[in-house]
Amino acid sequence: MIDKVFEKSITKQFEFDEEVASVFDDMLNRSVPYYKEMQRLTINFALNFLENNDKVYDLGCSTASTLIELAKHCDKELQLIGIDNSNAMLNRAKNKAKAFGVAIEFIEGDIHDIALEDAKLIISNYTLQFIRPLHREKLVQKIYDSLESGGVFIFSEKVISSNKTLNKQSIDEYYKFKKTQGYSEFEIAQKREALENVLIPYSEEENRQMIEDAGFSHCETLFKWVNFATFIAIK
């Protein structure tokens, strides 16, 4: 379905409800620059680390697109686990996984409360930015502790610049991108307002520092387009 969520005036902050879930795949592709390329890189780099029976978690798996694509491109038997707190998202994820014949265990709940155990790979695409800063570092520490030695954490985030001028220019560039995707000025403004104080991005440097503080031996940016970035961290 086509994303038309913000064609009408908003009445609440952004949430991953049934309305958003029904158009989420289209929303991602039109709202996140080079989303498919970021997903492709996530999968290609992940494949270098995975062996038979490795456990893979996707935190905030939404409609399970990344886990499904990973399964399609991997010749190993993997334990795939998708976690999300949105029932509407998981309902669509289950239907998609069934349609593609991919075995995924889905868990509905708060990722702070769900045990992550013996993971070789943990994925988090545009999820940390929705976690309050007070709890974000704790979650990254939990991710580190849950990974096997040599395990990897691959995550994508919207980022900000510490330079005010460049940050403003980045926002303007992203605005132009959304216009090219068919979103109206009204829709763009409505979504920005709905996300206010819900999506709280870090800078690229802050994300790396958070990863280093958790104990990861290495963190690198795999891909960046203006204010969107994909990182890989190795335990």
Q: Keywords, please?
A:
single chain, 235 residues, alpha/beta, Rossmann fold, eight-stranded mixed β-sheet, EC 2.1.3.-, CmoA, carboxyl- or carbamoyltransferase activity
Describe the structure in your own words.
With 235 residues, the chain is of the alpha/beta class. The chain has a single domain, classed as Rossmann fold. It is 44% helix and 23% strand. It contains 8 helices and 8 strands; from the N terminus they run ααβαβαββαβααβαββ. It has helices spanning 18-31, 35-47, 65-73, 87-100, 133-146, 164-180, 185-195, 204-214; strands at residues 55-59, 79-84, 105-108, 119-125, 147-160, 202-203, 218-225, 228-234. Strands 1, 2, 3, 4, 5, 6, 7 and 8 form an 8-stranded mixed sheet that branches. α1 crosses α4. The longest helix is centred in the last third of the chain and has 17 residues, at 164-180.
Strand-helix topology:
Blueprint: H1 18-31, H2 35-47, E1 55-59, H3 65-73, E2 79-84, H4 87-100, E3 105-108, E4 119-125, H5 133-146, E5 147-160, H6 164-180, H7 185-195, E6 202-203, H8 204-214, E7 218-225, E8 228-234
Parallel strand pairs: 1-2, 1-4, 2-3, 4-5, 5-6
Antiparallel strand pairs: 5-8, 7-8
Helix pairs in contact: 1-4, 2-3, 5-8
